[in-house]
Amino acid sequence: PALHWIRSRTQAPVYLLGPLCATYSSSNPGTMFPQDRSCLTWLDQHAHGSVIYISIGSVATMGPAELAQGLGDCQHPFLGVIRPGSVKSEASIRFLDRFADETKDRRCMVKWAPQTEVLAHPAAAPS
Q: For the chain, how many structural domains are there in total?
């Protein structure tokens, strides 16, 4: 009903992009796992719009080859948030460990991040 109402009042196309996040509150962070805030310090060391943010969360899983190809080919600094259990199999985890060695100079990997703050950070903003 809400989407229909919005579409009926504009000529522009309206698209749904994904889950909405509540604003972070220290009294109610609303997270599944403890947040790793070290990624914000890592973002502070990078220029505006220079970091790619990848979050593999609670809905999708993927194999290591898919992940490594995308991140390995991009050659940009990236912040990867990979929720425990979102990458398939123990062999996949070992593969990601090797991949992490290859990309260590341009990546920060955490299990859970303060997403609203990451998305608002200048380094993760569109350039």
A: 1
